[in-house]
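I had to read the description of the data format several times before I understood it. For illustration, here is how one protein appears when written out as sequence plus structure tokens:
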Amino acid sequence: MEKIINVLSLTKSFGHLELFINTSIDIYYNSVTAISGKNSSGKTTFLKLLSGLLLPDNGKIMIYEKDITKNRTYAKQFVALALNTEYGFYPQLTLKENLLFLCKIYKKPFDDILIFVDILNLQNFLNNTFSLCSSGIKTKFWLVSSLVKNTKILLIDELTKSVDFDTKQKVYELIKELKTKFKYTIVFVSHDSNEINLLCDHWIKIEEHKFVQIR
């Protein structure tokens, strides 16, 4: 299998809190990889490192054989990040208006993302104001908005946390579609072993500041 992300001798800490100590892992093309671990083990931090939002203290992160630790612009070109956050959106605008704004920034036709809107059954909510949407609708919107970028690597941070069963099933359907039809490489943070077994080709646990390959 083709390696698309190579994490080499990664070390990262925040003050006295050590998250990663000289640890390495590979992510493969067109695969779904689960990242799990205890609270505060560094799962979300790892996604932020892959996306270029944070830099490691030591080590390299190679994406398509380019070292993003030397040039974080590379990461922005290659990676889309779906975080459970309201940062970066306009609360007074509708979901459609937010998406149109993102499409303008990334020069992507709005019609190109409607297929993802349809998969998640988000069509009837596009004219709803973002700030007034439920957590389940926002979850679907965060995923769709991350797909506006013209990338094929998607990082997802626990977007099925605290949502209902139907929303989870729609998110699972989208992830499967992204892999099989659109050939995305997906790194997915989760605490749910059933979710991991359902969706993921590879499972990596963060234990004692290291990446441990479960499968």
User: Anything to note?
Assistant: The domain at 3-213 is CATH 3.40.50.300 (Rossmann fold). The chain has one domain: 3-213.
